[in-house]
Amino acid sequence: MDSNLGALTIVFTEFYYWVTVVFMFLIHVGFCVYEVASSRRRNHLHTLMKNVMLIPLVTITFFFFGWWIYFAFQNGPWITGGLISAPFAEPWSPLMSTHLSGASPHLGVEAADAEGWHRINGVFWAAFLLFSWTAASIVSGSVIERIRSGAFWILAVVIGSFAWIVDAAWGWSAEGWMVRLLGYHDAYASGVIHAIAGGFALGVLVVLGPRLGKFDADGNPRPIPPHNPWFACLGLFLIYTGFWGFYAACNVPIISPEDIGGLIEGETWTATNIYLGPTTLSAITFNFLMSLSGGLLAAYLVSKGDPFWTFSGGLAGIIAASAGNDLYHPIQSMLIGAVGAIVAFRMHHWVERRFKIDDAVGAVAVHGYAGFFGVVICGFMLWGVPSSPYEGFATISPWGQFAGAIIMFFVLGFLPGWIVAKILNAFDLLRIPRAVELIGLDFSSEEAQAQAIADVRTAEAAMLRR
Q: What's the start-to-end Cα distance of the chain, in Å?
């Protein structure tokens, strides 16, 4: 830190990200509450523990390789260049610790940069880590009541510490190849987190199959409403609150033009989005609340007042507008949020009827379909706007955004989810036994499961004798 002003900026940035991480923790609290509320009583503990235990698993794996992937893979790899050196993200590096040691040759960075990474690396890493938890939790809700815990935890590590962070490196960094070549713009992660997680969940669901009793003999879906709509509402409001903190975490809070090579014209220090383009907290406050309101209102109307879909529609509205909420006018955010909620509702029920996909909480629709729509519509709303302050980068366009949406939802989302689920299923590790599903997943011990299977077989034999 070469001056008191520089030191103050670093300390402020450190505190800023620390606060956003605390807010974002509410997202995971909300997912836990929401998923338990959506499951039936016999599956509450399993649903809760499945989601809680992704925290240590994703945290540890993200520390060892997820954080490094974000910096190392921004060129593809080998699309605009090779792997990028990222010594500050290597798990054994002193820069991944809490002390304030000075620069030395083995750190691989300049002295000023070393001081900055010592102060900011932990909170910046934690912000991305909370995004990883979110991606895994989105998948968690869709597969409740029939997946083995171990299978879900493997899937959580795959998406939380690998798949989503690859797409972040490609399309959610200042020099990612998708930004450079496609003009990809996704400021608050309509595609980078939500579309990929929705696509991943869909890939898993195709292999996992529906819950027992979800479809009747004619293939018509039966409603399995949330066990506790009050807690479902509370969970979603916690997610809204944490998502607001997520928005702030997607910004760089204060930066001088000199610190980023004069990419921003003038001398005024400013906040920027993830692509280093100027933005403000006022912009995202307007647009967050307007997209939430548009989604809630549209979902209430299209679902005829169904509480579950009204609450979920608010989240779908925010997700649909998130790609461009750093640059949209608030009225644009409201309208995009409204359309995104309708897309999520209509697509969920069409896919459920047509393909017999049992998405227990509508996660594929709310996150995946709304996120895909949000990325694509951003290309039309912001057509021709610079994607980056860097010279030579492509501008935002409908075709660049559509290509980005395909990469997020299908290439890095659906395909990895489907492939890993197929492998797990081949070894009979994906889905719980039928008898255990009938009795309930909270019979989690081997003895309880064996007794549950025996009870079901006894009941089935008694029915056959009648």
A: 83
How confident is the model over 429-461, as pLDDT tens digits?
Answer: 999 999 889 888 887 555 566 666 676 677 777
Give me 464's structure tokens.
Answer: 């056959």
What is Dmax (Cα atoms) for the chain? 87
Tell the residue number behind the tokens 């989604």, with chain if given.
Answer: 295
- CATH code of domain 4-252+272-431: 1.10.3430.10
pLDDT confidence bin for 175, thresholds 50/70/90 = very high
| Burial per residue of 71-80, b for 16 or more beta-carbon CB atoms within 10 angstroms, e otherwise | bbbbbbbeee
Residue 349 burial (C-beta neighbours within 10 Å; 0-12, 13-18, 19+):
middle
Q: Output the six-digit token pair for 290.
A: 């307007």
Q: How far apart are CA 439 and CA 442, in angstroms?
A: 9
CB 257, CB 265: distance < 8 Å: yes
| Residue written as token pair 């909270």 | 442
Q: What residue ranges do the domains of the chain occupy? A: 4-252+272-431, 432-466
Tally of CB atoms within 10 A around 122: 18
pLDDT confidence bin for 272, thresholds 50/70/90: very high
Residue with tokens 């974002």: 24
Q: What is the pTM of this model?
A: 0.94
Q: What phi, psi does 390 have (nearest 5°)?
A: -70, 140
Beta strands in 59-106 (DSSP E): none
In terms of average pLDDT, the best of 226-230, 383-387, 435-439 is: 383-387
